[in-house]
Structures are given as C-alpha cells and as structure tokens.
Amino acid sequence: xxxxxxxxxxxxxxxxxGAAVTGVAFNVEAAGLATSSLDRFLMVWKLKTQCRxxxxxxxxxxxxxxxxxxxxxxxxxxxxxxxxxxWIPCIHGESSVLKGHTxxxxxxxxxxxxxxxxxxxxxxxxxIWSVRHPCLLFSLFQHxxxxxxxxxxxxxRLIASCSEDKSVKIWDTRNKTCIExxxxxxGFANFVDFNPSGTCIxxxxxxxxxxxxxxRMNKLLQHYKVHRAGVNCVSFHPSGNYLITASDDGxxxxxxxxxxxxxxxxxxxxxxVLSVAFSKKGExxxxxxxxxxxxxxxxxxxxxxxxxVLKHHIRRTNLDDPPHLLDIYPRSPHLHGEKIQxxxxxxxxxxxxxxxxxxxxxxxxxxxxxxxxxxxSEDAQNPPDSVLATSSKRKSExxxxxxxxxxxxxxxxxxxxxxxxxxxxxxxxxLTLTVSILExxxxxxxxxxxxxxxxxxxxxxxxxxxx
Length: 467
Fold this sequence. Notes:
Number of strands: 31
Radius of gyration: 23 Å
Distance between the termini: 76 Å
Largest sheet: 5 strands, mixed
Number of helices: 4
C-alpha cells in the first residue's frame, strides 16, 4: 500500500441543468451519478463509455435533495413541492409520491439497509418512511425552526438532524426520542452526516465552521474555519480519514481529519458550491454549484486499498453497544484556522475539461410498467420485488401525484373500482396531512404547557423567597 498523496483531478464538467445544482449522489459502482436542481428536475448521468444524461420530470417545484438507495435500484428526491419521491431510475420514469410534510422538504436519505427513508422539512419535523410499502411510519418533533438535514447512522439506530434553531440533535429510532442536543450559538448547521464508523458526526455551518463531534462522549473533537463563507455540505471519504466540504466561497476543501489539517483547496465552480459527495468506494467525488454545473473529480490523493478498511466499518454496523475497538475517529480537539497551508487545485489547467456536453434525454412519468432499462448500467435489468412494490403507474404527468397504480389494465378490475380506489387513496393523503398538522399542533401545545409549568414554578419559588 502506498502512502504518498497525489492531487485530485477534474475529470470533466457535466452541464444540463438550467439552475443551481442542490444535490449529487453516486450509484453503487460509480457508473451513474444522480443530481437534483432548482430547475425542478432530477438528472441521471451515465458515466461509463459515452456519457449520456437522463432528465426525470415529476416534481412541481425545485428539487432540494437526491440519494441512491444502497443497492442502487431506487432514487429518492425531496422538493419544495412538499413531497418526497421514490424513483426507479429507468427510461419509464416510474415514481411513487410520499406526502405528509406541510412545507418544503429540505433533505432525504436512505437507511443503510435501504428499508427506510428519513426526510427533513421547513415544517420543523423529521419524518421516517417505509420504502418497501411506501408510507409514513412516524414523525419527530423538537426542533423549533426549519430542519435543514437529517441522516441515518450506519447501523440505522440513530438519526442526526440539524436546524436553523442552531441545534444538532441525535435521535434514537427505536424509542423515537431525542437523546442529545448539541448547540451552536454562533450560527446554524446547513448539513450534517455520520462518519463511516458511526462514532462521529460532521456539521457544515452557516458561520463558515465545520465541526466534528464524538457522539459517544458528546464532545467537540475538531473545529475548522477554513472557508470564507458559509459551508453548505460535507462528505466523508469511505475510509473515514478525509472530509470534503462545499462552501458559498466557491471552493471545495479536503480535510485530513486524522491529522487535523487542511490538505487541498479546489476551485472550478463560478459561484457558491451547494453540494458534494464521494462515490461509495471513494475513487471519485462530484460537486454541484449555483452555476448549474456538476464537476466530476478523480480523488487520487490516497492510494490505500480501502477494501480492508471498509471491512472494519461493515463490522461496526452491528447491534452491540458502543464503544467499539474498531472505531476510527478524529483525535485533535483544537481549532483549525485559515492559516494552514493547502495545495491549490485549479482545473482551468486540466486539458480534458473541454469535452462536449452529453446528450440529454427527457423522461416523464409513464402510464404503463414494462421491464425497466436502468440508465445506471449497460444492459436492461429486472427490478427486485421490493422495487416493484414501491412503484406507481401514472396516467399522465398531470396525474403524477396519484399514489395508486393503474391496476385496471393489468388485473381486469373495472374502471369504476379503480376510480374508487384512487378516491380512497386521495382521502388517505388528506388524512395523512391532517395527522401531520395535528402532531405539530400537539407538540406546540406541549411546549406551551411546559412553559406555563416552568413559569408557575418560578412564581411559587419567588413567593416562598418573599415569605
């Protein structure tokens, strides 16, 4: 194994979106890249051989987040239209709509086993959804302002969330309770994520700060202020040794979290960088910016054989209680400032960035289901039963929010019964929204009662002191 660092290299820019790119996500083999944008579209870029792009139409407003399922068979997206969508990334554009949020959805993320989704919203709630049978399982309320991001831990037992109420919260998914709240009085976190071993979380701050916390000891381990503007996104390398950050200052920074130092500053975007993600094996990473560009990079800077490292992290996803002897986590608890020297990488000197933009194929929701031609692989594949269970068949783009497939054509059910089923599902959607609103109001009522009780206790103490 070599230990020498080599500089990351820009492979090529990917152009096709008409507005800022809000999210980037690789599939399992890094042969496909999914991106979300304020232009209301998802795009799947086929990176092998001749690059091609597929544009998925369905959301009514800006798409704020995108992620592949761990097996690469599904895509999840979040939108300002208050919905989460599950897509089969095929040329038929099949998708299911998950309704329940009452405001813009800011982020969506799969659990490591692919069975669950977690979403964060401006309605101040976090919602957990079933993927196999698409439905809302439960909601988490304690944030007092918009929730920017929520992520599952690698073992699925915890959820980390961040909010504009300036807190980062850790939730127990089994008890559905908040077990820790980490406060930041200097600003709020835009993004939060677990390291691969699940022992630490990193937060990207609006106040230019990147913080790493040990969630076993609830201790701040590292605090970086290496950007000149707010940080929008972070991504851990699969080894856990490196962290990449994306900022409004137009740069990407790569941090060596074991050594506690900044090692690279990457330029290339013309304006704020909104999203960044490593591939599953770490050999590539991609960034999306307000300039509507996606930049695809080759990592290069570490040539370790990560198969052995990843085996250790897989062992971490067990059910025994922490701490774990195999955990890898940052050691240095001190502040890292802007004065640290780093290698500047400017892709204007890379000769192969002038490649032609790939052709874009637009895909709308389809009205029938056939064998999907996955755009993330070379040949057509059959989706697993779990994927079939999650897909919805749309009559047209205007009816794309219906959650019931057109079963009449496939099972011989009469049109009247099909219409009745669709009406029932519409009523269930209304009930789901009503329950969500009632949960929110109940939480507000509980907060007010708690405040009243605290005020009453203060008054009683004051009366006793005066007496």
